[in-house]
TrEMBL record:
Broad class of where this protein is predominantly found: membrane
Organism: Cyprinodon variegatus (Sheepshead minnow)
Subcellular location: Cytoplasmic vesicle, Phagosome membrane; Early endosome membrane
Biased composition annotated in UniProt, kind: Pro residues: 144-153
Protein EC: 3.1.3.36
Record-given protein name: phosphoinositide 5-phosphatase
Length: 789
């Protein structure tokens, strides 16, 4: 894309930072250019492009790409020269951004006094810079050093020069470490604290000169490594084979006079800030830290707010002549050099580690050496020696016994540093701990019981009498929160059940929330629909269920539902109905066909019997219920306007269903529309549609050919084949009266196709509009046919 030159500036106004994106003078002369002022706040983002960050650039003019996002500003892509000036400027911008995050966090939280002490790196911009005090006191075998001279830093506020490192917060507590233990005893135990930036190297010699430099074994080892693995893979995957190699090297070098086990290993990756020797800012880099904690097998303790900060903090010297620094080192003028140490200056001006202490430094700078030597950097860069590797602490009852570097370790360009501490700890009185723990458990149990939700139910058992198809019955009960806390309740499924109740049952509401003493009515509804009627008709299901009412964090309550069901011809198969010559309600489980009584009504049904059979042995050609419904419509409704389009009355529908279930009526109650809807409900409730499920796909495939359609109907079971032909003849008769009843072949085909040709349950949800149209065409072909089948 098009590139234009810009100038970047970092501006501070009353404690707030703004990034200015300005045009160069040449661009301004050639034409007007928009200039941006981007606030550095929580909406500000500065991202270095990953491709540039991970690849080595061997070009003559290496560059980096930066994406900027900010409030009320477009997203910008900047290409900057990859040099020290750019890196330090970007670090200063990042530092300003971190400062804004710290300020926002301080507004959101009321920080405790002890938590405020942990915010070592915050710059307090709202106060005037204090006068330069003497260095904080050092607990060591050496007296405090002399006060430092004024720091050679710019007048403008800059970010804290803290760098890479890790903290060891001894907080390994027993179960009751948070309790007051009057019978506990205090003692001092030894802690070996070590830090080493290994510069991506692998151990090439024993670590005993570093870890076993004292005659007596320490109780605790706390060891921190930096730059364990500098490869791209370690950065991306947070994993490195070198980590285990260094752990094994440490384990081999631990003091031989005691047995140790590793109780903690923490691996961290983050960006850190490297101090710059210019006024522009700092440089961000990536580092991997591995912190290890070992203890003797017999050591157990409770710590009291002790924090140890160790690592390659990367503070340098405010000196720019490497030869002068080396001269002062050679003359052992270490105190003179420490006056220019950036960490000391930061602590002195209360910009970092303000309440931490550090022992007297009597060892030469630990950075930067030529690898495998004791010679300071002799490369072209000629890095200025510095005390990058430091150990600081904060807390009470801490005594630093030793603070040293280990010059004999030559694996890295850093020298390892260690410190030996005596730290006061409280050892738990086991008997007292046990008593306090038991008392707490008793109190917690009592409190838990008081806080458990509890409800009372007005009823636990319900009986529904004479349940019928499509006839709703309701019962109610009252649930009352009689506990001391609010409670959530819900009806939950029993084990291995997908739903909390059977299909014919429903609780309304089935879940809710109750305040203490609040009551709520819950209705239990029993309604047998087409989805549940078949199992009830056949006796495979009964009106019986147990509801589980569950309280969140509480117990379960069980509600019993029972009742008796009255069988119906609706939801009964065509084959079964053809074998029943008396009302369905008189047959037990629809299998006791019994002897027919010689009544006039049954005599009139004899013409429905299969040809050549006796009334006692042969099934009906079609179910008597189908004949009664269709015959009523055929004789009384052919000219009925909007037949099958106007819904019936619910009371009349229930009367028609009861009439068909309990008798063989000469006529049906209700209007023609109610009888028509009853016929549709009957067909919809059939467990197997008129065109059987197994022939569904063949029916669709043959819908384009009338010959194949007739052939398929001839292959239906006898009862299904007879009902299909009987219904088609009736529907064709209705079409002959279309001038009066407003029916069309398309309308009838659309309505009855969904009832006579239903997809199997396992594919019903996948039925497409094309499949539905094919079913309509199948029925339409018979309605328009002139054959009398």
């Amino acid at each position: 894309g098009h590139k234009e030159p810009r100038l970047l500036s970092l501006i501070e106004r009353n404690g707030d930072f703004i990034l200015g994106v300005l045009a160069t003078p040449d661009v301004v002369v050639s034409g007007p250019v928009a200039q941006l002022s981007i606030p550095i706040n929580h909406k500000f983002e500065i991202i270095r492009e990953a491709e540039e960050a991970l690849l080595i650039d061997f070009s003559d003019n290496p560059s980096i790409k930066i994406r900027l996002k900010g409030e009320k500003a477009p997203e910008l892509m900047l290409e900057l020269q990859d040099d020290e000036r750019t890196q330090t400027f970007l670090t200063q911008v990042k530092s300003a951004q971190e400062r804004d995050y710290a300020y926002v966090d301080s507004l959101k939280n009321t920080v405790k006094v002890e938590e405020k002490k942990n915010q070592q790196n915050r710059i307090v911009a709202s106060r005037e810079p204090p006068p330069i005090p003497t260095l904080p006191p050092r607990k060591a075998s050496f007296p405090p050093s002399n006060p430092l001279p004024p720091a050679p830093i710019p007048k403008e506020s800059s970010a804290a020069l803290q760098a890479r490192g890790s903290s060891v917060i001894p907080n390994t507590k027993s179960e009751c470490s948070c309790l007051s233990l009057p019978n506990s005893t205090s003692c001092f135990d030894s802690f070996f604290i070590g830090t080493w930036n290994v510069n991506g190297q692998t151990p090439d010699s024993s670590l005993e000169p570093w870890l076993c430099c004292d005659s007596d074994p320490p109780d605790i080892y706390a060891i921190g490594f930096q730059e364990l693995d500098l490869s791209t893979e370690a950065f991306l995957y947070m994993d490195s084979s070198k980590e285990q190699v260094w752990i094994e090297a440490v384990e081999r070098a631990l003091h031989k006079k005691a047995d140790y086990k590793m109780v903690s290993k923490v691996t961290s990756q983050f960006n850190f800030k490297r101090n710059s020797q210019t006024e522009i800012g700092q440089i961000y880099q990536h580092i991997t830290l591995v912190s290890l904690l070992f203890k003797t097998s017999s050591f157990d303790f409770v710590f009291l707010s002790v924090v140890i900060w160790l690592g390659d903090l990367n503070y340098r010297l405010f000196m720019y002549d490497a030869s002068e620094v080396k001269r002062l080192i050679a003359s052992n003028a270490l105190k003179k050099l420490q006056e220019y140490d950036q960490l000391n200056i930061q602590r002195q001006t209360k910009r970092a580690f303000t309440d931490f202490m550090e022992g007297e430094i009597n060892f030469i700078p630990t950075y930067k050496y030529d690898n495998k030597t004791d010679r300071y950097d002799s490369s072209g860069k000629c890095r200025i020696p510095a005390w990058c590797d430091r150990i600081l602490w904060r807390g009470s009852n801490v005594q630093q016994l030793k603070y040293r570097s280990h010059m004999e370790m030559r694996t890295s360009d850093h020298k390892p540093v260690s410190s030996l501490f005596k730290i006061g700890v409280k050892v738990v009185d086991e008997n007292r701990q046990k008593k306090v723990f038991e008392a707490i458990v008793r109190d917690m149990d009592r409190l838990e019981n008081d806080c458990l939700p509890s409800v009372s139910l007005s009823r636990f058992e319900f009986t529904f009498k004479d349940v019928k198809f499509r006839q709703l019955q309701k019962e109610r009960f009252v649930i009352t929160n009689d506990g001391q806390v609010p409670c959530h309740f819900a009806f939950i499924p029993k084990p291995n059940d997908p739903n909390y109740c059977k299909p014919w049952l429903r609780a309304e509401p089935n879940k809710g929330f109750l305040e203490p003493s609040e009551a709520l009515e819950i209705y239990l509804e029993v309604y047998v629909s087409k989805d549940s009627v078949t199992l009830l008709n056949s006796g495979q299901d009964t009106i019986y269920d147990i509801l589980v009412l569950h309280l969140d964090r509480g117990k379960d309550y069980f509600i019993t539902i029972s009742g008796n069901y009255l069988s119906s011809c609706f939801g009964t198969s065509l084959e079964t109905l053809c074998r029943i010559k008396k009302p369905v309600r008189e047959v037990e489980n629809l299998i006791d066909l019994g002897e027919d009584s010689d009544t006039e009504k049954e005599k009139c049904m004899n013409f429905l019997l299969v040809d050549g059979g006796s009334p006692e042995d042969k099934p009906l050609k079609i179910p008597k219920e189908v004949w009664i419904l269709v015959n009523h419509l055929f004789t009384k409704s052919c000219d009925q306007e909007d037949l099958f389009q106007t819904p019936g009355l619910q009371e009349e529908l229930q009367s028609i269903i009861d009439c068909l279930d309990t008798s063989i009526p000469e006529y049906l109650p209700g209007c023609n529309h109610s009888v028509a809807e009853a016929l549709l409900i009957f067909l919809e409730a059939l467990p197997e549609p008129v065109v059987c499920y197994e022939l569904y796909q063949r029916c669709l495939d043959s819908s384009h050919d009338s010959r194949l359609c007739k052939q398929l109907i001839s292959q239906l079971p006898r009862a299904h084949r007879n009902v299909f032909r009987y219904l088609v003849s009736f529907l064709k008769e209705l079409l002959r009266h279309s001038n009066n009843n407003n029916l069309t072949a398309s309308l009838i085909a659309t309505l009855f196709a969904s009832l006579l040709i239903r997809p199997p349950p396992n594919v019903a949800s996948r039925q497409s509009s094309q499949d539905r149209q094919k079913a309509i065409n199948f029925i339409l072909g018979f309605l328009m046919s002139g054959d009398e089948d």
